[in-house]
Description:
The protein is an alpha/beta fold.
Amino acid sequence: MKKKHLTATLLLSLLLVSPAIQAQKKLLPAEQEIELKYGADRLGKRQDAAMQKFRDNRLGAFIHWGLYAIPGGEWNGKTYQGAAEWLKSWAKVPSNEWLQLMDQWNPQKFNAKKWAQMAKESGVKYVKITTKHHEGFCLWPSKYSQYTVANTPYKKDILGELVKAYNDAGIDVHFYFSVMDWSHPDWRYKINSEEDSVAFQRFLTFTDNQLKELATRYPTVKDFWFDGTWDASIKQNGWWTAHVERMLKELVPGVTINSRLRADDYGKRHFDSNGHLMGDYESAYERRLPDPVKDLHVTKWDWEACMTIPENQWGYHKDWSLSYVKSPVEVLDRIVHAVSLGGNMAVNFGPQPDGDFRSEEKELSSFIGKWMKKNGECIYACDYAGWAKQDWGYYTRKKDEIYMIVFNLPYSGQLTAKTPKGVQIAEATLLNGQSVKVTEVARNEYNIGIPTQTPNEPFVIKLKIKTSDSPVSKYKEALT
Ligand code: JFZ
C-alpha cells in the first residue's frame, strides 16, 4: 500500500514537474518553429491592466476546502500520511461512499466575513478557492451536478458568500477548478475506445457548462487556476484546453488563466511544442521554488508558486505532527524568494470541517500580516531586481528603488551589495526612514551597515540608486 503511494507520488512529480522544466529549455529558433493550432496565444508577458493587477498583488492565500476536511486524513480508524484531499484515493473509498460525506457537511462556524477579515489582516491581496477538487464536490450550487453544497444540511452557497465577503474587503478572488472529477461517470484517464471518446466528450461538455456557470454566476472572478489536467485524456484533447481559455476570456474580460490547464496539438503541457508558455502565467512551481542563481530564466515570464505549511497537506488533516511544519519565518522566506524572482506566492490554508481555521494557520496568518503591514512595500508591485544574489537574503525592486530583505545576519556587521555596471548606490535607509551607512569597497561593490538594534525578524533596507554610463569611481578594475 505504502509503496504504491510512493510510486504514485514519484510518478506525479515526474509527470507533472518535468514537462514545464524540460519544455522551456527547448526553445527553437523562430524559423524552425512548427505550426500549432493550440499552442501559445501570445509570446512574452501579457501586458494589460488586469495582468498587471495579478502581478502587483504578489501575495495570495490558497484555500482547499471540501468533503475531505471531514475525515481529515483518517478513514475507518486508520490515519493516512498522504495529502488529506487525496484520502479517497489512498483509502480506496468508492465514490458513492465518499460522497455520503455530504450528509455531514454542516460547517456551523463558517463565517465568510470572518474569513475575509482574516485574509485582509494577513496582507494577502487575493484568495484562490477550490470551487471543486478532484472528489467532485462543488462549493457552489451547480445545476449540473447533484454533489454540491445545495444538497447538504448546510444548503447555502459557500462560494457566493466568500466571493462577496472577499470582494467587499477589497480582495480579488481566484477560482481553483479540478478538471479531473472522481464523481463523474464520464471522466476518463485515457481514451482507449470509441466509447471512451464519446463519454469523454460528454464530460468536456459538462465541464464547459460548469465553467460557464461559474463565470456567469460570479463575474468578479479574476482568475481560473486549473488542476487535474495531467492525464492522457486531456493531452489527447489539447484543442479543448485552448477552447476553455478562449471561452473564459470572452465571458470574463481580463480574467487570467494558469499554464496548468493547457496542452497543445501534440499534448505538450504548460509550454507548447515550440517552447512558448501557454496561458498567462506558469504554475508548475508547487512546494518548491526556482533557484535564485541558476533559474533566472523564470524572470522572462509571469509565474505563481503555491505552497503548503506542512510538507504536503492542502486539505485539512487532523494530524500535522506527521510531517515537518514550516515556521512563520520559513514561510516568509519563500514568499520573498518568489517575489525576488518576479513570481507570486499563494500560501495554502485548509479550513476545518466546522468552518474555522486551525490555530497554527491563524498564528501564521497573523505573523505574515504584521510583517506585511510594516514591510509590504518591498513585496506589493515589486519585481526581480536584476542584482546578483547575496547570502544575507533577497532583493526586490520597484522602479528605481531596490529593497534588501535581510534573512541572515553576518558577523562582519556588513551586508555586501554588488551593483550592475553603471549603477551606484546613493543612499540606504530602513523603512522607518532611519539612514544606514553605505561604504563603497570596490568598483560596483558596497558594504551596507546594519541597524545597531537588530530587529528580531527579517528586516528591509531600501536603496536609492543612481545610474551613469561612465561611473565616477575611485576604484579601478585590475588589469590582468
Ligand atoms: C494538485 C492536487 O492534486 C493537490 O491536491 C493540490 O490541489 C495541488 C494544489 O495541486 O497536485 C499537484 C499538482 C501539480 C504538481 C504537484 C501536485 N506539480 O506540477 O508539481
